[in-house]
Amino acid sequence: MNFITLQTDDGFSLPALHMPSAQGQGTPMVLIQEIFGINDAMRAAAQAWAQDGFEVLCPDLFARQEAGVVLEPRVPEQFQRGVALMQGMDPERAVKDLNVARQWFVDQGRGDKVTALGYCLGGRLAVMMALSTPISATVSYYGVGLEDLLPAERINMAPCLLHIAERDTFVPPPARQTILERAALQANMPAYVYEGCDHAFARPDGEHFDAQAADLARQRTLDFLRG
Question: Which part of the chain is the Dienelactone hydrolase domain (predicted)?
Fold first, then answer.
């Protein structure tokens, strides 16, 4: 695990965590952070997906504001810091930066089958990538604000898997219903609701971690990305 530097289209030097696959040359994956920077949870996620055969690249999306941010969500002040950084981030610029990470894999000779996977804020950005970049497939874990992002008609977009927590306080039932209805319109956007689970149910050691749901989501993700 080490950091590399990506050169963006506007000349910014973007740090990104790089985790080679544990199984030789793996499937390229752009991993998209939560609002807490590339903290221990994101490093653990990178390691876990590398163990499953992916080569992981996780850009530091807050680097344009402050590089190397590492926050603990259970500390209220740090949680609020993450919210402030998210609000200060330009989502469209973030998607362009994530696409630079996708292009890095292509330029490294890994082919054009590059996947993306994100959590929370990253879950929303993963859907944005599916809508607007040449990514081959994306996975969104409890993405926020998807009800305002997903189109109300079928469009051409990359396959995208949605993991939705039934009790997600950031996605109330009416919003969840809109997400499910709009996902059903697309050609390849399976959406699963995890009963009894709250936001961030797949974050190990997190307040709402649910091992059974996390394992199920992981298997569905592997089936989707390997299919």
Answer: 20-226
CB contact at 8 A, 89 and 65: yes
2-226 fold = Rossmann fold (3.40.50)
DSSP 178-216: HHHHHHHHSTT--EEEETT--TTTTSTTSTT--HHHHHH
Is 199 an annotated catalytic residue? yes
0.90 exceeded by the pTM?
yes
- Average pLDDT on 114-125 reads 98
Check if the beta carbon of residue 134 is closer than 8 Å to that of residue 102.
yes
Q: What are the boundaries of each domain within the chain? A: 2-226
Catalytic residue among 52, 60, 97, 168: 168
pLDDT tens for 13-38 read: 999 999 999 888 899 999 999 999 99
Catalytic residue among 18, 163, 198, 199: 199
